């Protein structure tokens, strides 16, 4: 692995000793535990801006939040309409989408307002995913459909064009969805219990590859370079597919014999979680057998086993936040309780969000985001100062553009 330290965040269905836990994947030791939040459900564990961890309860209509450097959760209770089936937080940390049954609600985390409630699926929603730019999101579930949404139109409750398009190529429920890098120009990969893995162009929903496996599929992930696709099945095996080898046809049927060389076999039950490290050399897998395994990708060898008490619900890599072990740092959870009723258009227009500007030096801000301190030295001090001056200039230009835009819009209305 690289010098940038990556850790694993995991959870299981027992919550006997903790709700979720941060692990050192190199040594297999526990770094931090987050308690008294109950067992998180599948696809409900998220980290916001490297400062707050949120998780949806497995059996109760609750959302729990922990400061990254505290074991006890926030005292604020986040009540939901029903038990969350999936939770997704935007990359900027402004919006949170919570699925319950065949519907989902969009919440503004800064104000707690319920911005929209949407019911377009005919079955339970299993997966919610944001694009990396936060402009769109994807929902998928038991009705065998995948729907792509525009976040701004959904929040504005515009009926026309709120749903961009839907994908209905599967014959059984969709198990998992992964979105690559590049916003709406990214690759969308999805798997189903019908044993197929389909890859789409997210911009137009065009299917460009269909891989059919010999077993039912449960979870998938891609590496950062999008050159390898990893698929977990219901029998406990993980398959690696090289996306750089150009297929001769749009549809490929893989037989068990062809997968022997590219298979990870150690789990005894269905795979529930998969994640790849940033350097693409380490794979993290969780299973219903109560274990999380750290693999070396090239050799397919097991590096570490992280034991748990029950079936794994969430397991993924993240860059270790610097604030995680700074107990003196106060990181209050800034999110108010969620509102039950969807706000009206008039209320939406009156919303004002205060975004405090960070006055910290660039060095401190990057360290808080998890960047290694070894990157900086005295020789770069002058360069950092120049960058900070350039940032201030850009802020002034953006402020001028904003004032001019407001003035032009006001003149048009009059």
From TrEMBL:
PROSITE patterns: WD_REPEATS_2 (PS50082), WD_REPEATS_REGION (PS50294). It holds the Pfam family WD40. WD repeats lie at residues 118-152, 264-305. It comes from the Eukaryota. One of its GO terms (biological process) is rRNA processing. Keywords: Repeat, WD repeat. GO terms for cellular component: nuclear pre-replicative complex; rixosome complex. This is WD repeat-containing protein 18.
